[in-house]
Write a sequence for this structure.
């Protein structure tokens, strides 16, 4: 067996949990994601958790309905197309993206929120391997 064949077998056997969908075994990674708790998957932990999880979606719906009442159908349609185009602008998977264009469209670029301080990807405990992340994004893995 040549070294290229051995390398491809070695790469195929390395688990990449969190980068791609779970493999054939679908094993939960306890070290990275903590212990499974079935109750938290079924029922929210707090009464406001569901509302907070969908806050941005509800805010966008309200803004789109107001914009439709003021400008007509073309206003929210144009804004949705701009949102979709701004979401597609991203860096390589292993580099953090700031999504500045999307923040500017939503008007949240001038405010400092909870996610701006405590969601810093440079302080993340999980660092992926750049080659595996690119292979996964391109569908080669």
């Amino acid at each position: 067996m040549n070294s290229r064949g051995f390398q491809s077998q070695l790469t195929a056997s390395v688990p990449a949990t969190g980068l791609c969908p779970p493999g054939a075994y679908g094993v939960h990674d306890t070290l990275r994601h903590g212990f499974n708790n079935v109750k938290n998957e079924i029922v929210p932990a707090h009464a406001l958790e569901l509302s907070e999880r969908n806050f941005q979606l509800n805010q966008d719906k309200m803004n789109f309905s107001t914009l439709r009442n003021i400008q007509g159908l073309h206003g929210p349609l144009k804004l949705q197309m701009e949102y979709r185009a701004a979401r597609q602008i991203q860096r390589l998977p292993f580099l953090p993206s700031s999504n500045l264009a999307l923040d500017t469209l939503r008007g949240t670029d001038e405010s400092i929120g909870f996610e701006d301080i405590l969601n810093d990807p440079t302080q993340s405990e999980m660092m992926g391997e750049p080659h595996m992340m690119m292979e996964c994004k391109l569908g080669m893995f």
